[in-house]
Design goal:
The structure holds two protein chains of two kinds. Chain A has ten helices and seven strands. By secondary structure, chain A is an alpha/beta fold. In chain A, β5, α7 and β6 form a beta-alpha-beta unit. In chain A, α1 runs parallel beside α2 and α3 packs parallel to α6. Chain A is globular and about 55 Å long. By secondary structure, chain B is an alpha+beta fold. Helix content of chain B is 25%, strand content 25%. In chain B, a hairpin with a 2-residue loop joins β8 and β9. In chain B, α9 packs antiparallel against α10. Chain B is globular and about 60 Å long. The two termini of chain B are 28 Å apart. The chains are: A alpha/beta, B alpha+beta. At the A-B interface, α6 of A face β2, α10 and α13 of B.
Chain lengths: 256, 447
């Protein structure tokens, strides 16, 4: 259930070892969310995160459970939903924080690894999101936060495999939100710019880069206000809306 | 039974859910409304939080049955439970009867009034709504029950205040109050601070049938608790002037305004509320007696603006209402100080002194002070502030009102209402399969 401040009781974090996902969980625990299920590939990291989440609030401790989940594994959708139903009475909020950057240069040469990037970020993930949305629709309420990326707003040559997957995910979830109007299910798409996390530790920080903490706070604020999409930081939204309308010949020359 | 799936919320518009709405007419529908899965009764949706909704389940509504209502000479009114106080007043005030208890809105059903065991400005004299209920019919999954407080006190006092969790109240007989006129004779006092307010209410509330104080929650320091105390009686025929005496029971409540369909968030902010409070305090007379005010002007001023809950914008608002026992005036002061220091704007803050409690398991009133605050959702510290106030209320032996709640937690509620186990036991007999539930009962694990 949600309370009046839109704080959920039960939260599913898909991509349970993602820094943004964990940060959202911590901020929700601080607000009073009581039950979390982390679903992801790295059991050790999720176990450490579980300890952090359950000790974040001095008033009450949240209960956190962990399951192995890999979106590209066969049967992952069913396993995820069954675990969520068993661990959480209702899936009040689901945070989809699955992401695999891949390696553009290598993936370009190897279509099989390009396929893995597309699956992990979009084609295997979308059915999982759909299953969660359908479960929430049955409940009559629920909120799905999907971590998209500015890389998916205008796909660039420098990372077009990851970017195209995020573009697919972004389009899918935005329209899912429209389709869910009247069902009680809300969808918020979160589009961070460059986030300094372990996923990007090997990369040069870019202009308008942001932190997992900031992305989590802005994602939750957007959810509280029932926004369908939010850019983090805000200025990134302005930059992207200009960039996406540039003529291709010009956009191609912008070096990032 | 016609039904369709709709989005519903409480009056605070904070927790929208999709539910199947079933219109059930107990006088003509033979089939039980409980055959379509988990369900809760829903009246006019005036409870602030999630009491009258069940996400993914069924909300059962009853028709307004004012046309088949009947009343005897001594004022016993038998009426379908879906009938609103609004309809009852429109029909019976001109015949010289007023409802024995009315909350701040007349847009509540009789079923809802019993289920929330509502109170009014006369609680210190007349008790809650349930005190004036002779009997009611209860339809539960296990069967239909004729319930009155003498022969079936367990079911009666589990249902009165029971937030709909024992079943569907289908009709009731209530004792109406005979009135000579449709006017209130009102005394208004402007009061400078909290001490004076409490002393005045302790000293002389018992001289008035109706009493309530509006408090400026933004006033601090020496002005903390500055307020306007309004107390009144039903006006007698002899007190009316010639013009009013020509039609002493005239009753024409008007809905003058309608809130716009869309209002941006944050219209009610600290600045606008502070300005309103200043104006409201200053426009009140220092002391005025024997002013004649219409029934709707006295009891239901907010009903004059249709859909006024929209002015809080899309994120909605909540009402925080608690009661503290007599003798806990210092705690009341501390809570008021914290609210005014926290700068959460409260446009409507009402203080009332309660009379005796009743045996209702979940009935809210108990002797002491009740404060109700309307607060817009928005301030990021609001949740934690109210959690802390809950603990202050609890440690002072008080509790919060379930019909208003949209955010408390199960442990705190269980400590405030220690008889939840009794309710669960009675419910077990009425609803062995646990069909009846609401988002409120799930969130707070009431049964």
């Amino acid at each position: 259930m949600f309370d009046a401040m839109h704080t959920p009781d039960n939260v599913l974090i898909v991509g349970g070892s993602s820094e943004i996902g964990i940060e959202i969980a911590k901020q929700l625990a601080r607000r009073g969310s009581s039950k979390f299920l982390l679903a992801g590939r790295s059991l050790g990291a999720m176990q450490r995160a579980a300890n952090e989440i359950s000790s974040v609030s001095e008033h009450s401790s949240a209960s956190v459970s962990v399951i192995y989940y890999d979106t590209v594994a066969p049967g992952s959708t069913t396993d995820l939903l069954n675990a969520a139903k068993a661990e959480l009475d209702t899936i009040d909020m689901a945070v989809i924080a699955v992401g695999a950057l891949g390696n553009q240069e290598e993936d370009e040469k190897d279509p099989a690894s390009a396929q893995r990037v597309l699956e992990a970020n979009f084609s295997s993930l979308a059915p999982d999101i759909l299953a969660i949305a359908n479960q929430m629709s049955e409940q009559g309420f629920g909120h799905i936060l999907v971590l998209s990326s500015v890389a998916g707003i205008r796909v660039r040559a420098s990372n077009y495999i990851y970017g195209a997957a995020k573009a697919g995910l972004d389009g899918f979830t935005m329209a899912l939100g429209d389709a869910m109007v009247g069902s009680g299910v809300k969808v918020t798409v979160v589009r961070p710019g460059f986030v300094t996390t372990k996923m990007t530790a090997h990369m040069q920080p870019r202009p308008l880069s942001t932190s997992a903490h900031k992305v989590a706070a802005e994602a939750l604020r957007a959810a509280d206000h029932n926004k369908s999409a939010v850019y983090v930081p805000y200025a990134m939204g302005i930059a992207v809306s200009i960039y996406r309308h540039l003529p291709r010949s010009l956009a191609r020359k912008i070096p990032f | 039974m016609p039904h369709n799936k709709e989005m519903i919320t409480g009056w605070g518009r904070t927790q929208p859910v999709a539910a199947k709405i079933i219109s059930y007419d107990p006088t003509s529908d033979g089939t039980s409304p409980f055959l379509q899965g988990p369900a809760i009764a829903r009246g006019l949706g005036r409870s602030y939080g999630d009491a009258a909704q069940l996400g993914g389940g069924v909300a059962i509504t009853l028709p307004d049955a004012i046309n088949s209502a009947s009343i005897d000479e001594s004022g016993h009114l038998s009426v379908g439970a879906g009938t609103s106080i609004d309809s009852i007043l429109a029909r019976y005030v001109p015949q010289g009867f007023f409802v024995p208890v009315t909350p701040g809105t007349r847009y509540v059903t009789i079923g809802g009034a019993i289920a929330a065991d509502v109170h009014g400005k006369n609680h210190h004299v007349d008790g809650t709504f349930a005190a004036n209920v002779e009997n009611f019919e209860l339809l539960a999954p296990a069967g239909a029950y004729h319930v009155n407080p003498l022969e079936s006190p367990e079911i009666f006092w589990a249902t009165a205040g029971g937030m709909g969790l024992t079943g569907l109240i289908t009709s009731a007989t209530i004792k109406m109050l005979p009135i000579e006129t449709s006017y209130m004779s009102v005394e208004t006092r402007r009061i400078g601070d909290l001490d004076e307010l409490l002393a005045t209410m302790i000293g002389s509330d018992q001289n008035f049938r109706y009493s309530v104080a509006w408090i400026d929650c933004l006033a601090k320091g020496g002005r903390m608790g500055r307020s306007v105390l309004t107390r009144g009686e039903h006006a007698t025929l002899g007190s009316l002037d010639a013009r009013r005496a020509r039609d002493p029971l005239a009753y024409k409540p008007r809905v003058r305004l309608s809130a716009p369909r869309w209002v941006p968030n944050g219209v009610l902010n600290l600045a606008s509320v502070a300005a309103f409070n200043e104006m409201w305090f200053r426009k009140a007379p220092r002391h005025r007696q024997d002013e004649l005010i219409s029934l709707s002007g006295f009891f239901h001023p907010l009903d004059g603006v249709r859909d006024w809950n929209r002015i809080y914008g899309s994120t909605g608002f909540l009402q925080y209402q608690f009661v503290l026992p007599d003798g806990k005036e210092e705690q009341l002061r501390r809570i008021l100080e914290r609210i005014s220091a926290a700068k959460v704007a409260s446009f409507l803050a009402v203080l009332k002194r309660f009379g005796a409690a009743n045996p209702g398991i979940l009935s809210f009133p108990r002797p002491g002070w009740t404060l109700a605050l309307d607060i817009p959702i928005g301030a990021s510290h609001l949740g934690l502030l109210l959690d802390e106030l809950d603990q202050e209320v609890l440690s002072a032996g008080g509790r919060i009102y379930l019909a208003k709640d949209s955010r408390c937690d199960a442990e705190t509620i269980a400590a405030m209402y220690p008889r939840l186990g009794e309710l669960a036991k009675i419910k077990e007999g009425l609803d062995p399969q646990g069909i009846i539930k609401s988002d409120l009962s799930r969130r707070l694990r009431l049964v």
